[in-house]
TrEMBL record:
Keywords: Hydrolase
Domain Metallo-beta-lactamase: 31-199
GO molecular function: hydrolase activity
Source organism (scientific name): Brachybacterium nesterenkovii
Name this protein carries in UniProt: Zn-dependent hydrolases, including glyoxylases
Any Pfam family the entry gives: Lactamase_B
PANTHER family per UniProt: ENDORIBONUCLEASE LACTB2
InterPro entries recorded: Metallo-B-lactamas (IPR001279), RibonucZ/Hydroxyglut_hydro (IPR036866), Sec-metab_biosynth-thioest (IPR050662)
Family annotation (Gene3D superfamilies): Ribonuclease Z/Hydroxyacylglutathione hydrolase-like
Amino acid sequence: MTEQPLRAAGAPAPEITCLVAPNPGPLTLQGTCTYIVRDGDQVWIVDPGPRDAAHLEAILDAALMARGARAAGILLTHRHDDHAAGAGTLRRRLSGTARRDVPLWAVDTAAVPGAIRPPGRLLGDRGTMGHVIHLPGHTADSVALLVEGGRLLVGDTLLGGSSTVIVPPDGDLTAYLQSLQVLRALCLDGRISAILPGHGEPFEDPAAALAAVEDAISHRLARIDAVREARARGVLTMPRLLREIYGPDLPAELEEGATWNILAATEHIRRTG
């Protein structure tokens, strides 16, 4: 068995550029964050986003603008279309430019034709560029990329400015809470220096990253308690649960996400007692 190379001594941290897709909305916030990770001459694209021609052209321009830049691969943090729909087209374009097959990595290989499961490490000319971490909960196939130096590209496991929606049965609140504890441990161990979410603003230093994870844990536990208490009082229909837990002024465009999160909490309570 060949040992995978560590990062070359003295190599600078990879560069990360964010391009925001033009798909803003109540659940996508400003739009999907596509990340371009450059390490020397090699580039990786994380979450190409929707099948939007202008956005895909912007990704290609940003990824290959440097002379000699080489596409090393595309990583999907999860299967949802706002992150993955453009991946097949981007892979074909990059492969045509490179005159070789550019790998497309996804845990759910059925999400995009030609996808393969990601390795534990993404390797480049300078050794390890980043580690792929499985974080189920938002979806069963959710992963994050921990780039050398500590920046975590977390997909929709955390959002910058909102809470993520969990849609059962693919979404699983029990698994999500476990994944948040994994992130909390990584923050406390000093392995995460910043969190770059799939939507919204980044958490740009270790303290902000840890606070974001702990806030997400506290928020979910509070929601679970609220659902449990409401059901114990006999509040069982979804319209009444929405009013009880989110208040009478919940915007109509957020009702669908709130409904799914209540259902996820209900399933968690049923499973865990």
